[in-house]
Specification:
The protein has 180 residues and is of the alpha+beta class. It has a single domain, classed as 3-Layer(aba) Sandwich (Aminopeptidase), CATH 3.40.630. The chain is 34% helix and 27% strand. It has 6 helices and 8 strands; from the N terminus they run ββαααβββαβαββα. α1 crosses α2 and α4 crosses α5. The radius of gyration is 16 Å and the shape is globular.
């Protein structure tokens, strides 16, 4: 399951799903598991995100050329060849260079630093795209684990909107590389 676009850390492989694999992952999970030889627990993807796949992500994957900005990326534990979570971008950078991200990790993989490690590597990978200047994320105000991940990676709280907190990581580039 190694690919040119994979992002690697000492413990993790962050792997983008191409169109067929994305479809199989969502709708034909057993087929995906058999073909990928990955252990994929059922709870690695948030049910709300899973529901949005058919309405939001699939139409974008089908009409956009750069699938990397629209597909799911699996966060894989190298040692166990096991999917621990997912990551996605909510489209290509906008005119201001901002890109929004989302992620989910299975309950049994939480509080081990895995999402922080994955997100740091992804932010570092964003340096390959000079048009990306700011990364945005949104969390529920009571999702303390996700808040802590964003803080550790360097995101700053920018706005409160009802039950949601809006976060930004700005000025990507050399300054960000030094902090990772």
């Amino acid at each position: 399951m190694k690919d040119f676009f994979d992002i690697s850390t000492p413990r993790l492989l962050v792997h983008p799903l191409e169109k067929k694999a994305l479809f199989d992952f969502v709708f034909l999970r057993n087929k995906f598991i058999n073909e990928s030889n990955l252990d994929v627990p059922d709870n690695i993807i948030d049910p709300e995100l899973l529901a949005s796949l058919t309405d939001v992500i699939f139409p974008q994957v089908n009409k956009n050329k750069n699938i990397l900005f629209y597909t799911l990326w699996l966060i894989i534990l190298k040692e166990k060849n096991q999917a621990a979570g997912i990551f996605c971008m909510k489209g290509e950078p906008d005119e201001q260079g901002e890109i929004e991200i989302g992620y989910s990790i299975g309950q049994q993989f939480r509080n081990k630093g895995l999402m922080t490690e994955a997100l740091r590597a992804i932010v570092y990978w964003f340096d390959n795209f000079p048009e990306i200047t700011t990364v945005k994320a949104e969390t529920l105000s009571d999702n303390y684990s996700s808040i802590r991940v964003l803080e550790k990676v360097g995101f700053r709280l920018r706005q409160r909107k009802g039950d949601y907190l809006l976060w930004k990581l700005m000025d990507l580039g050399d300054k960000q590389k030094k902090s990772i």
